[in-house]
Structures are given as structure tokens and as C-alpha cells.
Amino acid sequence: QVRLVESGGGLVQPGGSLRLSCAASGFTFRNYDMRWYRQAPGKERELVASIASAGGSTTYADSVKGRFTMSRDNGKNTVYLQMYSLKTEDTAVYYCNVRFRVTGDYWGQGTQVTVSS
User: Fold this and answer.
1) Is pLDDT at 106 greater than 90 in this prediction?
2) Which DSSP letter does residue 25 get?
3) Mean predicted confidence (pLDDT) in 68-90
4) How far is Cα 11 from Cα 31, in angstroms, rounded to an integer?
5) 45 and 39 in contact (C-beta within 8 Å)?
6) What does 27-91 look like in DSSP terms, one character per residue?
7) What is the mean pLDDT of the segment spanning 57-64?
8) What φ, ψ does residue 9 adopt, rounded to 5°?
9) Mean pLDDT on 73-96
10) pLDDT(63) > 80
11) Is 74 left (phi over 0), alpha (psi -120 to 50) or beta?
12) CA 102 to each of CA 4, 28, 99, 106: distance values in angstroms, whole numbers, following the listed order
């Protein structure tokens, strides 16, 4: 059974930092690309960052490039999203995602990030 569990969200002031974690289970983690998405109130879910299974190459949305860093620890079956210089527009629920060719997308329950003074 595929399971993704996000943690690390919270309330932070503009300019602050947070690190999100996503613990994965139920599949061979090291073989799959992983993604972080976010969804702000009234907006569509958007892709924030992705990391490849092999080699760990990363891609980022333009809106977070240079401020967010995604990484993975294949020994712990965990991906991370380190967020720096947070802005009010980063406020959203952040979701971890894995995509399988046959069964499609799986999502975690999400973790709320609120950037506010």
C-alpha cells in the first residue's frame, strides 16, 4: 500500500525558512521520481519541484527557483523541501506526489504552510 506522509509545515514570517519532509512507503522509493505540489486557496494545484530517481537531478517552478531546494534520502525513503526567503504568496497546502505508469498519481494528506507577519 502506497503511503506518503508530509510534515514540517507551520506558520512563519516573511523571509523565514521551513523544511518539509515526506516519508514514503509501500513502493521501491529509489526507483521513482518524486514531486512537491502546492495548492493555495481558490487556486489550482501547481508543481513546485521534482527530483529524479537516479542521480537526484531537480527542477523547480520559476516562482521558487533560487529559494527552494528539493532533496531525497533513499536510505530513509524520504524527500525534503527546504524553503528559504518565504513570501506570503508561498502560503498553501504542500503535497508530496509519486506517479506510477499503471496506477497513476498518489498523494499525501498535505501540510499547511502559512507565511504571514
Assistant:
1) yes
2) E
3) 97
4) 33
5) yes
6) S-GGGS-EEEEEE-TTS--EEEEEE-SSTT-EEE-TTTTTTEEEEEETTTTEEEEEE-S--GGG-
7) 97
8) -70, 175
9) 97
10) yes
11) alpha
12) 18, 15, 9, 12
Q: Is the dihedral of CA 101, 103, 105, 108 positive or negative?
A: negative
The phi and psi torsions of 113 (rounded to 5 degrees) equal -115, 120
Residue type, 115: V
Averaged confidence pLDDT in the chain = 96
pLDDT, tens only, 10-27: 999 999 999 999 999 999
List C-alpha distances in Å: 109 to 4, 13, 86, 94: 8, 24, 22, 9
Q: 93 pairs with which residues across the strands?
A: 39, 112
